[in-house]
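User: structure tokens for Transposase, please.
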Amino acid sequence: MFRVQRLNLPEGGRTWTVLGRDHRVVGPAEEYLEYLRAQRSSPNTVKSYARGLALWWQYLYAFDLRWDAVKVADFGAFLTWLRTGDEPAVTSIEQRPARFAESTISARLGAVMSCYDYHLLNGVDVGRDLHRIIHRGGSRYKPLLEHLARRHGRRRSTVKVREAGRGGPPPVLTPGQIALICDACASWDAETGEWRGSVRNRLLWMLMAETGLRLAEALGLQHRDWHTGRGDTPYVEVIPREHPHEIRAKSGYRRLYVSDELDRLYGEHLWRLCEVGADMVCEDFDAGYVFVNLDHEPRFAPWKPDSVYDLVDRLHRQLSGRVPSEWTPHWMRHSHATALLLSGTPVHVVSRRLGHADVQTTLNTYAHVTDDAEMQAMANWKAFTASWRVATDAVTDSDPSIGPCS
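Assistant: Done. Predicted tokens:
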């Protein structure tokens, strides 16, 4: 009865809102979502928060609660409702799986809590018991000048979801496994002097393994973002922009140097695109996407993430027993960061190359890597990264005019 509705904006973008039982916009939810848009939050963030708020207002309606007269206990009951879906006066004794994963429940609760924080700051008398002040936290890490900035303790959510830990370091692929995946897509035939297979598919995996790009960032690359060598060091630019499939670069602008081998493979891919007429179909080929449909309609349209995961499924079957059965495209990013750190690259350079907003994110995620000498010896990471170019100049990468940095 309460649902998320997609809206097409006049300037061509998309956003989402929450509609009620009367098919009208839910005012308090829309007010908060508009605040997110004003803060230039990504469309995917707005969509995720809208989903959480739609579930919250559905819960309020089912339990006959006013949105501005809820108590802490109501938020706890909301978590139970998300897991079970039981209506008022119903307590099921049947063992059944939860409706949502705990990570999803945590995200939906976070959206609701943020909405109430926003209204509280704007003078609406809601949510005053949703946080408590903690004077001594359990985390050892403290931000710079924490002792000066925090005189009255930290605000901590009263209601929260205790998620299970990730259970160890992020998963990685060894250089040999990455080579198997790339060769399964396309391989060089020395006798004919030609590539056999899908150069596009091989280019995607080599690019992600060599740059640490997220899948959305790789699929968002346009030809004008790839600056081929021509005597200089080749590099790609990650530029946030709207994408037809609603994917976007998450970390803002950055410049990433690549190897000559990867640059030559891109040249082969470009030549093949022109051979089948992609440059004649696209009005502005420079603004065309690097990764496009080649075998399915609409031909030369931007490649969808779903299509990439279909490719992953095929590679799972083809390489069964030789690579981890559960690997995903994001493993390439983890493998890239691991390779750089094991090769001795400073952590602040790795952080900048990955597009992390804070070097602490890199430290928290990959703190185990530098001590893992066994992994380093097994995977031969130094040889794997020998041809990669990673600038170590301590300059910002937020502005293209500042100069080369990774």
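User: Anything notable?

Assistant: Residues 3-157 form one domain.
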